[in-house]
Amino acid sequence: MVLQRWQTVYLLISVIAMALAAAFPPLRVAQPVVELGGAVLVARVLAAAIAVFLLVTITKFKNLKMQQMLCSVGVLLMLAEIAVVAGGYFMAVVEPRFTMTAPLPVLALACTLMAKSRIQKDYKIIHDCDRLR
Predict the structure, then answer these.
(1) Which of 1, 3, 69, 125 has its CA 20 to 30 A from that of 54?
(2) For residue 2, which phi and psi values (nearest 5 degrees)?
(3) CA 70, CA 116: separation in Å to the nearest integer?
């Protein structure tokens, strides 16, 4: 793995954030008897899948176009994760509370978007150097 590139650092921050979001539930209720439905479980499974997907994206550093496309897919998956958490919040029967891990998908989304922009800059630099040859 190449850790000297900024996009790798940003993607690694996204992987850590999504792994933490998968490990801990994003919503909690005051009465543990009441269930939040499948939203919390779906959110945790989706967060784990996104973390693995972003880890695979880090390993594709030799193919910048592929890495950029995988970042775009990761962004869409993170938007789905945010929608599932928000849907679980608004569809709950009782008033749930967000935990400390609820904003982690938003942090991962921002880091993935920054990584995508850095990949675009690297691709442009490489493409310009090839054109000058």
Answers:
(1) 125
(2) -105, 110
(3) 9
Instruction: Report how far residue 102's alpha carbon sits from residue 69's, in angstroms, rounded to the nearest whole number.
Output: 26
Contact between residue 37 and residue 91 where contact means Cβ atoms under 8 Å apart: yes
Distance CA 121, CA 43 (A): 32
Backbone angles phi, psi at 37, to 5 degrees: 85, -160
Going by the DSSP 8-state scheme, the letter that residue 40 receives in this structure is: H
Rounded mean pLDDT of 95-104?
Answer: 87
Asked if residue 120 lies in contact with residue 65, where contact means CB atoms within 8 angstroms, the answer is: no
Q: 81: burial class by Cβ within 10 Å (0-12, 13-18, 19+)?
A: buried
CA 88 to each of CA 20, 63, 81: distance values in angstroms, whole numbers, following the listed order: 18, 37, 11
Kindly report the number of other CB atoms within 10 A of residue 31's CB atom: 6
